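Protocol step 6 of 9: fold each sequence in the batch and record its structure tokens directly after the sequence line. For illustration, a two-sequence batch is reproduced in full.

Sequence one:
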Amino acid sequence: MISYPLPRFEQQKSEVMQRYRILNGSGGFDTNHVARTAALVFGVPIVVAALNERYRAWFRSAHGVNDTQFERLQDFCSLANLSDVPFVVSNAQQEEYFAKSPVVAGDPKVAFFAGAPLRDPDGKRFGTLCLLDPRPRTMAPHELATLESFAGLLSGEICLRSAGRYAVQDLIDVEEDKCTLYDLAMTDPLTRALNRRAFFHFTEREVKRANRHGLDLSAMMMDIDHFKKINDIHGHAAGDEVLRTMIAAVLKAIRDEDLVGRLGGEEFALLLPETPPARAKILGDRLRHVIKSLTFVGEGGPFSISISIGISGLHKHDQDIVPVLERADKALYQAKRNGRDRTELAANISSVPGEKIALAAGG
């Protein structure tokens, strides 16, 4: 079903990320339970998954270290990233290659250092699962095999999460394309109001709802006074800016459920669900004052604008929006004849059966 208000990309993106938050992990995955289990199995105080930059930004698995130590140990463990097989360094403090490292010479004074490669399904290395202990020690062959199994499990977890992140991004891209196409199909590109076709689509739904439940409904036709003179004196660029700014002010002043459509040129229509004509007139007068307070600068210098408004309510015999808009359009003409910059109600104006909506000419 086509919905209104039109979907906005940030809202759709938020919904996708919430729906697939387990896969997405935009805030970073914390799988410290894997490191904690490895620490229990191997009897070591520190376990760190040392990852390359691509994964480190969003995935973390560590046990027995604070944030400062974690970053320092990432750098230390990266020294082992060239190893293609599980390895053991019984006492790093006695190894020249490691002895000068800050985490060996200082806190947490690493001595024992063992690790197993983390790999993607193609066998490419992207990190090392590291066991660390300030006490020197060795590992039996079966312990090394177990460490390699842990590394395989963690590798699978990381790769699954990585694939999920790409999948969620693909979904977000699709939603962005859908919102863009929906916007192009439904809105006027200059003012962002609904285009004529979309306006009539959504208003028909509101008319049916009002008739079904006996609700009030009002339509408002709105036209800029002397708009042709604005274009002639100040240029068409200024005229476009007038339309953009005016509708932005209108959208800011109305409710989310109210509909605004550009029906032609400088003429716009508003549909106000659950609103009697008397209340619609209050809104119309408020819109006139808001728009009259706007100032513009064109080729002829600074200028301001005024609008005329015609309003009609839904009658019991109205089966669609057309007769409502016709009465509002006649009330708009009456506002023009009565001196412009006015809001007129179509209380005593009846539509001619089958008559088409006549859009007021600029002026």
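Sequence two, same batch, same settings:
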Amino acid sequence: MLKNPHHKVILTVLPYFYRFTSRATIRMKLFRVILTLFIALGIKSFSLAQSDSLQFKVLSGNNTAINDSVPSKLFVASIAIYGNKKTKDFIIQREIPFKQGDTISPANLIREMLMAREQLINTRLFLDADVYVENRYGQFVFITVFVKERWYIWPIPFVKYIDPNFNTWWVTYDHSLKRLNYGIKAQHMNLTGRNDKLTLWLITGYSKQIAVKYEMPFFDKKLKNGFNFLVNYSNQRELNYGTDSSKQQFFRPDSLFYLRKSLRAEASYIYRPGLHVRHIFTAGYGYESIADTVKALNKNYFLDGKTKESFPYFGYTFEYNNADYNAYPTNGILSSATILHKGFSNTMNLTQLQLISSYTKPILPKTQIQIKEGAMINLPFRQPFYNKMMFGYGNGGIFMQGYEYYVMDGDYGAVLRATLQREIFNTSRTIKTSATKKIDLPFRFFAKLYSDVGYVGNNDAGNSILNNRLLHSWGLGLDIVTTYDLVLKIDYSFNQLGNSGLFFHIRTDF
């Protein structure tokens, strides 16, 4: 915390923003039982700062109190930024909705300081951020922004199962090591201090992959225009060539030849006019090649029995993000809508529309309801298997809870999820990394009750047990949220097929 040796600010409202505040709080005990999910939530206390006005005192060096009321308009005299060793000041200022020299009402200043903190946390550059009034003289306010930067360089070993989720790998395939990708994933999450990210993958194991990706959110002085590019080359010795009864079917030959080779290169232009909206325009090229064995197993992997496809693709994505914490929102909206077109030939011609959004609303202290939806349509409906893989295939895509052992191919589909979640407790652990340095690891625990409803239409459903019927599932679970946006989800789900089980996810659901 930064302190002014000559002045001390004491405010009688919103102690979070006004750091030097009285600690007048009201402790309340809250009992709430919501079905079996919230058994033994216990008595939780929370504090509310109270005040009838935005009055404060400025105590000078000789402790003479000057009492005055806050004017109806405040002038932002300065914004001082501290704690950023790598990140440029203008990247931090870009996320603050008010600027030096602005005139703003006290109520709006409070609201926008909260928004500024949320925006800074959601850049994924900082472990913590504080935005508060350091001093006020009449109508002039002096704002302090204090950030605690993350560790940005991650040259770490990479190990990940290739299946859609942990349970499929652990149960269905008996946690086979042959189904693991491993190697090195080197990342710099703030290469030049401009929130630009460089990632390099060198992967072997189940598939051989080399990829490089660079993201630059802003390249202009107005901080509205950015870009990214990606090049990815991979080979696979085992391939999901089709589905049977809504479950993936894999083939792995005894010899060591590759069943699939793929290349993807793309570039995107990003336009972000304000704080919450982004427009992303993408152009790329894809090449896919499969072995004749795959064609024999599924003649519709590509249309007309082809074993090779090369195609350009173009896309546009609209994003609106206005939530308190994007990794695990407890208030706000996250949404994206994408239109993507692949190829122009008779065998590769796809226009895909996809919508993913979530709306989270507090209904009680520490308790929220969240509505999440995902929808997709592939046009025209005549598509190869390569383009019909829709829900449940992992990689952050849309899926239904309770159907983790299944996948859904189709022409169009939608999933709606309703979740009631409550923070039951939080804690923190301190780890000393040296004699003078330490790391604080916060943990927040959320109990939840959820229900999914979904439908996937398929004009060529084959022996699918999930297509062209209304699906539903429900369950309860525990989410653990900690630093660096890590979210561990432990769910016990039930589906209409009569299946139930314990499922694990690491922030992979849509």
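Proceed to step 7 once all outputs are recorded. Observation for sequence two: The first strand starts at residue 8 and ends at 11.
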